[in-house]
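Standup, Tuesday
Yesterday: got the pipeline producing structure tokens again.
Today: sanity-check two examples.
Blockers: none.

Example 1:
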Amino acid sequence: MTTPSDAPPARASRARPVLRWARARPEDVVDVLVYVVVLNLAVEHVPVVLSEGFTLSLLTALLLKVALEVVLRVKGVVLARLRAASTVRHRVVAAVGLWVVAAGSKVAVLELVALVFGDAVQLGGFWSVTALVLVLLTARAGVRALLRPA
């Protein structure tokens, strides 16, 4: 029989929201794991991509997951505006906005990683981050397709 003094520590109650989130959104958990694998492969094989340890790679993968989700949502909004544009001027403005989101998101990722991790994590420059993001999104899509029920 348990008594109030046998109750789990407060730390366990803080972990419950994380478990609830993980169970409610397993695709996000899989995305983070895919990002960790891709990021660590980049650290191993691309000289300009550096991370001081696995924990930093995991935290970087979480940061990239959040950043890329925001970028994908913004890109979706801009694409919707591009598709809904009725005049040439609106299409040009939306197309320029799409280009700004595409290019600006890479710069934002670089700055965000530098701000959060300093010199402990480096993703290289614009082109290496662009390649990394493309590989991350491709790997994510591939694993999601692989795990999707038939």
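Example 2:
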Amino acid sequence: MIEPSHTCSRLGPAATWRRLRMVAAITFACAVLSGCGEQFQKGYVLAPGALEQIPIGASQDQVLIVMGTPSTVATLNGEVFYYISQRSERPIAFMNDKIVDQRVIAIYFDKKRQVRRIANYGLKDGAIFDFISRTTPTSGQEINYVAPLFKALNIGQGQ
């Protein structure tokens, strides 16, 4: 005659409950720690194809219709609209979030309030880089205004 094995009865009820609680705690911890990471978007969210709708020579009103209100405005040989955004993610709950992308879209206007240039600044290899013209601004009024915007984005991020 074969008798069924009753592991629980050999351990006793107290040990069985401890083991079940430990398994439940480990399962819960694994679920929390391996849960889906979180992504955060701060500032301006660029709609797909938005920049393509703004040709050189477009009016300032057309830019406002397509892009909306800028994050900030400056005057550099005409007016400049800046749209500032930052994306960060946190792979595991309760950890600090890490910046994965930050952008400053700059739309430069001439004295007639028409678009003269568009730049999409981001960081590439730690330097400010224009992803439209594929250049790194090195000096002048333009970089003097854009660089502090990136530094302001990093405040409080532990970066």
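Quick observation on example 2: The two ends are 69 Å apart (CA to CA). Confidence is low (pLDDT under 50) at residues 155-159.
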